[in-house]
User: What shape does this take?
Amino acid sequence: MVSTKKSWFSLRNVALALIVLAALLAGAYRFLAPPEKPSYLTAPVALADLEDSVLATGTVQAFKQVSVGAQVSGQIKRLAVKLGDKVHAGDLIAEIESLTQQNTLRNAEAALQNITAQLAAKQATLKQAELAFKRAEQLLSQDAGSHESFEAAEATLNATRAEIKALEAQIAQSKVSVDTARINLGYTRIVAPMDGTVVALITQEGQTVNANQSTPTIIKLARMDTVTVKAQISEADVTRVKPGQKVYFTILGEPRKRYRTTLRAVEPAPDSISTDSTTSSSTSSSSTSTAIYYNGLLDIANPDDKLRISMTTQVYIVLAEAEKALSIPSAALGERDRDGSYLVRVLGANGTPEERRIKIGINNKTSAQVLEGLSEGDQVVLGEATADTPTSTTRRRMGPPPM
Assistant: This one.
């Protein structure tokens, strides 16, 4: 029994000694083993199409839009168009009950005829006055007539001539009245002032319009073969854009299709300038905290009528672009030197980062164009990788929609 207990204790001591020795060896290995090399998050220098653009939100508007109204009062007797109809300049839009205007024209024409008849009668009287004056003048020259008779004949002649002039002036005035009445009668037929599409019906057939105070609108007519997009450009970006720059935009219904054109103009002041001066001065204290936007205008053909009034657009004003350019993520750029170069770290063959100075071109804050200092395939360091972070990234184009 004693020998058995001794052998058991000796085995236990040996096991404990082996455990202690293994722990010592593990600690020594950890202490003496070289540290693991850090891993880095990298991205390749690759060819890509780059673009630097200003993003703005826009609204589709008609290239030209007019409100077609009535210049005379009356009931809409006939409405000759429907919503969405395409009309040409001179086409009938509506007719207003014209009995009042017809009667006014008849009265004006009758007054003109009356005064014309008075003029004819007075011209006959003028001939008699001229003959009487000549006889009185002859008799006076032969001492056969009195001065009183001559003077009376002369006064009658002058009065008749003055009355004729007054009638001629009344005739001219009556002609104006006739022309005005005829024009007002013409106003009862409302015609299209231009080619366009009926985009709104404001007044319905049978409705009475009153043109005494303001011109009532019958329809709204818009030219839609070409549309204008009004894009709101922030004050932070407006200094970088100018007319003539390339522009493309997308609409919600076709987010993958680009409509391409150029920037026609940038309005010199925001929309708020059109408000009353009193109102603008009263709100000047709060305007400093409000974002300011300037309208950029761009026109584009709309032959298939896909673009409609008030559609929302995402507008890209292209400042610079480059095709198949060497590019790296903008996050890889370090400090910028005085000469314009940037510091980047490139992963060397031994896995150690090396610092390089490079020159860049386009930088849209997502990708940067490399002009010199790097080659295709180089791995630029973005930062140190963690245990759950891949050491290399595959970059894809961000921002504008695909072609």
Observations:
- The helical segments are 2-32, 99-141, 147-187, 277-282, 284-287.
